[in-house]
Design brief:
Strands 6, 7, 8, 11 and 12 form a five-stranded mixed beta sheet that branches. This protein has a four-stranded mixed beta sheet with strand order 4-3-5-13, with helices on one face. The chain has two domains: 181 residues, no CATH class; 144 residues, no CATH class. The chain has 431 residues and is of the alpha+beta class. The longest helix has 21 residues.
């Protein structure tokens, strides 16, 4: 809607006194509403965006970079100029047409196409052979259930990409030590691609007055690849397998990650030694945010389980599903804490009994009216994601709190072009 009037409330509601709330509501906010309803505003001039193959700038590398910075088309880092030649190299790695529509991305409602996937892939420093992965990632975030429109919310969540399947090795992804550190081209450039794409196509920018209102943010933009060698050794399901995909499928899953836990070091030669620590640190960290999960009836936290820790747990006969059930049953939070944390974020009418009556959550949340009763922090055991990855020589795991129904896990099978093998061999010979 052109020139939509906005009446701004001054200050931060949740830290103001009752007197400040009353004054700001009755005087300032009311005055702002009247002003916006009665003042005349000029019509918005629609900006004509460039066509698919239009040349938007010519010049030196520095001149191109500065042009992209001025237009807010970069994350602040230098980009690879998306020349027609470079974009065409990416398009060779898909059988889809350049103008094929993937979806329309909020908040700026631009069309997501194969062409602009290639353009942003070039800019992010990806290799052309990553193109099938990039397309699958965009297919995931374009799903309505992903709620991309919420990606600029104040909690400041970041999308985290989990990769499974043969492409982990074929494209040389890191899945061991430092798996979530920048440094391996595949992990790092594809992570950067998603953030650039959300900026340039969806329109999520952090400039003043723009659409991304993340208060602090997380800064996580590296692909998380599962160590399927260890998963096979343990006889466990892969993360993608638990989401219904076949063992030979290459799959990307995209979900929100709100904040990490501390590094979880667990020790001992029995499964129970490690599970107790995982409940305390992973479960405990997620519990602080579980009021949003309970309110929405959705929660998809993610546990990155170190390979060495996974081996000890599996040796005692535990599977991933057993771990999920254990975390679900043993991670508790008091009803008082849930309601207090909900109030602090602004959910002033948070009521567990009312949520149970409406069928949002189970009866486990209203067994009594004792405010100190313990209730589940997780909504369903199968919604706790477990990925085996990280340094096989250390006893460290790490968890990620998820932002309830904003960007739940969406998985897509990666579709390869018909002549994938030939194209990949050509690409590797040219490196």
């Amino acid at each position: 809607m052109a020139n939509l009037g906005i009446a701004e409330y001054p200050g931060i509601i949740m830290i103001q006194s009752k007197e400040e709330l009353r004054k700001n509501t009755e005087e300032v906010l009311a005055r702002n509403i009247v002003r916006e309803l009665t003042e005349s505003v000029a019509s918005t001039v629609k900006v004509q965006e460039p066509g698919l193959a239009d040349i938007v700038v010519e010049g030196t590398l520095d001149e191109v970079h500065e042009y992209f910075v001025r237009n807010q088309w970069t994350d602040g880092l230098p980009i690879i100029p998306p020349t027609l030649e470079r974009v065409q190299a990416f398009l060779r790695f898909t059988d889809r047409k350049p103008d094929d529509l993937i979806g329309v991305l909020a908040p700026e409602n631009r069309e997501s196409t194969i062409w602009n996937v290639a353009v942003n892939g070039v800019m992010a420093g990806c290799r052309p052979e990553y193109m099938p992965v990039l397309i699958a990632i965009v297919e995931a975030i374009a799903e309505p259930d992903f709620h991309l429109r919420d990606a600029g919310a104040t909690p400041g969540w970041e999308p985290i990409i989990v990769l499974n399947g043969p492409l982990v090795k074929e494209l040389d992804f890191n899945y061991e030590s430092g798996v979530l550190r920048a440094g391996r081209q595949a992990n790092t450039s594809i992570g950067r691609f998603l953030r650039l794409y959300m900026r340039n196509v969806a329109g999520l920018r952090i400039a003043p007055g723009s659409t991304d209102k993340g208060s602090i943010g997380l800064g996580l933009n590296v692909v998380l690849a599962e160590n399927e060698d260890v998963v096979d050794e343990l006889g466990w399901e892969t993360f993608a397998g638990q989401r219904g995909f076949g063992r030979g499928d290459s799959v990307v899953t995209v979900q929100s990650a709100l904040s990490p836990t501390i590094p979880i070091y667990s020790a001992g030669d029995r499964a129970a030694d490690h599970l107790d620590t995982l409940v305390e640190i992973f479960g405990g960290t997620c519990a602080f945010w579980s009021h949003t999960a309970v309110r929405k009836g959705k929660y998809f936290p993610l546990l990155v389980l170190g390979p060495g820790v996974a081996q000890v747990i599996a040796r005692d006969g535990w599977t991933k599903r057993d771990i999920q059930q254990h975390l679900f049953e043993h991670t508790k939070v008091s009803a008082r804490a849930l309601e207090q944390h909900a109030w602090q974020i602004g959910f002033s009418e948070f009521d567990l009994h009312a949520l149970v009556e409406r069928g949002v959550v189970s009866q486990a949340y209203s067994q009594s009216h004792d405010p100190d009763r313990l209730v589940p922090a997780f909504v369903k055991p199968e919604w706790i994601g477990i990925v085996v990855s990280g340094d096989p020589g250390r006893n460290q795991s790490k968890g990620f709190v998820q932002n309830h129904d904003q960007a739940p896990p969406i998985s897509k099978r990666i579709v390869l072009p018909a002549d994938w093998r030939r194209l990949l061999e050509q690409a590797k010979r040219s490196q």
